[in-house]
Amino acid sequence: MADAGCAPGVVPGLALRPLSAADLPAVLVLQRAAYGDDYQESARVLARKLELESEACWLAQLGGVAVGYVFAHRWSGEGAPPLHAPLAALPDCADHGFVHDLAVSPAARGLGVAAALLARVRAWSAAAGHRGLRLVALADAVPFWTRHGFSALAADLPAGYGHGACLMGRALRDPQA
Ligand SMILES: CC(C)(COP(=O)(O)OP(=O)(O)OC[C@H]1O[C@@H](n2cnc3c(N)ncnc32)[C@H](O)[C@@H]1OP(=O)(O)O)[C@@H](O)C(=O)NCCC(=O)NCCS
User: Fold this and answer.
1) Which residue's CA is the nearest one to ligand 1's atom 32?
2) Measured distance CA(54)–CA(56) in Å, rounded
3) Topology adopted by domain 14-79+92-131
4) Closest ligand 1 atom to Cα of 117
5) Where are the domains positioned within the chain?
6) What does the alpha-carbon distance between residue 139 and residue 134 come to, in Å, rounded to a whole number?
7) In sequence order, what are the residues at sequence separation of 6 or more whose Cβ sits closer than 8 angstroms to the Cβ of residue 149?
8) Which of 48, 56, 83, 109 could form an SS bridge with 72, CB 3.0 to 4.6 Å?
9) Atom 10, ligand 1: residue with shortest CA distance
């Protein structure tokens, strides 16, 4: 399915489509390229997120080649979900969307791929009636998220997020803004 929601011409040749379990091998390759060997999730953990919230997980392709992905899901409460463990369930009453992971291959950076993926998640989260979006930013990515309207929130994060990781959030008002 081609991306009909992105402004045409912003990223020539970019297509966004819902992620499927068949995409997980490509996602793991992208994840390793984006983060290196220190941060690699299991296909089982990612498959569970897809199973629970497939409408919030997207693959970005340029010329038919996978170049980025995003996993998100509904969430509630002040903290962040555990890492490296399959989610048991999602809350019935969620007040925000949680961006679990967004990454773009090094060769495709700076083109607006991440912005397009994030716009898709914002639209999903706003349509679901959430008040805002949250995520855990790795230290290097804090400036990127700040540019997208996120600010730091106080929280004790589960082990595994790493030194310098930071819970961030932003309100959702107009998903097109
Ligand atoms: C962060 C990331 C997703 C951005 O992807 P991208 O497709 O290059 O982003 P976009 O093209 O939409 O936006 C690029 C803009 O953001 C800026 N940007 C990208 N990464 C940034 C960072 N870490 N800090 C500050 N600015 C950043 C670029 O300078 C560029 O600015 P410009 O538009 O003024 O030229 C990508 O660098 C990545 O995959 N990083 C490794 C994984 C990661 O850290 N993910 C976030 C997990 S918390």
Assistant:
1) 110
2) 5
3) Aminopeptidase (3.40.630)
4) 12
5) 14-79+92-131
6) 15
7) 170
8) 56
9) 112
- 34 CA distance to ligand 1 middle (Å): 11
Q: Would you say the CB of residue 34 lies under 6 angstroms from ligand 1? A: yes
Q: Which of 122, 111, 118, 119 is nearest to 67 (CA)?
A: 111
Residue type, 64: G
Residue nearest atom 41 of ligand 1, based on CA coordinates: 34
- Dihedral sign, Cα of residue 121, residue 89, residue 40, residue 165: positive
Q: What is the pLDDT along the chain (177 residues), one digit of tens a residue?
A: 444 344 444 789 999 999 999 999 999 999 999 998 878 899 999 999 999 999 999 999 999 999 999 999 999 988 898 888 899 999 999 999 999 999 999 999 999 999 999 999 999 999 999 999 999 999 899 999 999 999 999 988 887 788 889 999 999 975 455
Q: Is the pTM of this model over 0.85?
A: yes
How far apart are the CA of 96 and the centre of ligand 1, in A? 23
Q: Return the residue whose CA atom lies nearest to atom 26 of ligand 1.
A: 144
Locate tokens 């819970």: which residue?
A: 167
